[in-house]
Amino acid sequence: MRRVVVDMQNALFADAISTALKNFDSDFDVFQSEKPEKTTELCSYAQADILIMEVTGYKPWKLEKRMDIRNEVKTQHPNCKIVLVVDENTEQKLADRVRQAKKDGLIDNFIYGSVSATYLSAVIDAL
Q1: Which pLDDT band, with edges at 50, 70 and 90, does 118 fall under?
Q2: Distance between CA 31 and CA 99 in Å, rounded?
Q3: Where are the alpha helices (DSSP H) in the chain?
């Protein structure tokens, strides 16, 4: 069973991702973080294999804060895969920065908010 932690600004979006992952592959055990301050602790509790975090232009979902969480999680769980989700339509510059983080090897993958749930699930499954 692969354990996935989902940390999204929008609870509805988090529910949709959780449902999509569970429907795609029953091998996913999905945990939703209530707030970013609790994500690292939840990753430890769940022994997360994958952490999916939304990045926005607003605190506490800014890229810098997300990278802080990434660093904390990687310190405790070096094999945990980090995936960032960004809205490439409304946050074009931020999307460029997220893409650069992938190029720099700081994250394992990124997903644009406009992709289908099926595509998102397939990307997570391939990690």
Answers
A1: confident
A2: 25
A3: 11-24, 39-46, 63-76, 92-103, 117-126
> Using one digit for the tens of pLDDT, what is the confidence trace for 23-73?
887 789 999 999 999 999 999 999 999 999 999 999 999 999 999 999 999
What does the alpha-carbon distance between residue 99 and residue 25 come to, in Å, rounded to a whole number? 27
What letter does residue 36 receive in the DSSP assignment?
G
- pLDDT at position 105, please? 97
User: Distance (Å, rounded) from C-alpha 39 to C-alpha 41?
Assistant: 5
Question: CA angle, corner 11, sides to 10 and 16, nearest 5?
Answer: 100
- Separation between Cα atoms, residue 31 and residue 44, nearest integer Å: 12
pTM: 0.94
